[in-house]
Amino acid sequence: MAALVAACAALVTASPIFAQSPAAPRTILAIGAHAGDIELTAGEVLLAQHDKGDRIVLLHMTLGEGGNPKLSPEAYGAQKKREAEAVASAMGAEVLFAPYRDGEVPNTEEARRYVADVIRQVKPTLIITHWKNSMHRDHSNTSAIVQDAVLLASLEGVKTAHPAWRGVRSVWYAENWEDAEGFQPYVYVSTAGVVPRWREIVSKYEFARGTTSGFPYIDYYTALATVRGSEARTGQAEAFDIESYGKKRVLQSVP
């Protein structure tokens, strides 16, 4: 219980969320259920942070190989992997692929240990992933896996290929129209100036251009960036939620 409390406390992002002072380069691990998920929902911020010198690592739990009705999962999976590698290269990010299949992300101890070992290998200070409530079980399972994996990665007694890592300071949940239930924008990060470049990069995904399902992903998230930017008075922005226990500020005096 003490280890769990300590791990949860480490994720509480109170005043640091609002701090604007220069920071040393960070490592950000972005974990999506399907190749393309996290680049659409958090890609603007990831691109902006790479420009600032941060290390960006993408982990795709699946390729999303079942999403093209005109291609077999094998053929579309190969295409999605090529697209994911091209997008990561253009963003200046590293990319990792988990061994799971589209629609079958398992909410299991094995999956938690896999992600925990990735966390230990990558050594992120910030993790970005899906919000916990979703119409797509791959998304909600990924979120649950990540939450537990952060704890497992921090425990010396949990043995994986890499040593324990306790440096994760926070987990942010990206805004996704499929994960809307209970999501409340809390952290706003300005993306003004990077959106045109982000649009060009994510268009390397065929599905993002709306040609497989008809949903205009790139236009949708561009419009959302404008809405969130208007709310934050910063032109364009991406918004993230965090766990409720992190939503507090500790001040020495009233502002």
Q: How many distinct beta strands?
A: 7
Q: If classified by CATH, what would the architecture be?
A: 3-Layer(aba) Sandwich
What is the CATH superfamily classification? LmbE-like
Instruction: Report the C-alpha radius of gyration, rounded.
Output: 18 Å
| First and last CA, distance | 36 Å
Mean pLDDT across every amino acid position: 92
Q: Summarize the biggest pleated sheet.
A: 7 strands, mixed
Question: How do the strands line up in the largest sheet?
Answer: 3-2-1-4-5-7-6
Describe the structure concisely.
The protein is an alpha/beta fold and 255 residues long. It has seven helices and seven strands, in the order αβαβαβαβαββααβ.
Topology:
Blueprint: H1 2-11, E1 27-34, H2 37-51, E2 55-62, H3 73-91, E3 94-97, H4 109-122, E4 126-130, H5 137-154, E5 170-174, E6 187-190, H6 195-202, H7 217-232, E7 237-241
Parallel strand pairs: 1-2, 1-4, 2-3, 4-5
Antiparallel strand pairs: 5-7, 6-7
Report on this model:
The protein is an alpha/beta fold and 255 residues long. It has one domain (26-244): Rossmann fold (3-Layer(aba) Sandwich), CATH 3.40.50. Helix content is 39%, strand content 15%. It is built from 7 helices and 7 strands; from the N terminus they run αβαβαβαβαββααβ. It has helices at 2-11, 37-51, 73-91, 109-122, 137-154, 195-202, 217-232; strands spanning 27-34, 55-62, 94-97, 126-130, 170-174, 187-190, 237-241. Strands 3-2-1-4-5-7-6 form a 7-stranded mixed beta sheet, with helices on both faces. Helix 2 (37-51) links the parallel strand 1 and strand 2. Helix 4 (109-122) packs across helix 5 (137-154). The longest helix has 19 residues, at 73-91. The termini are far apart.
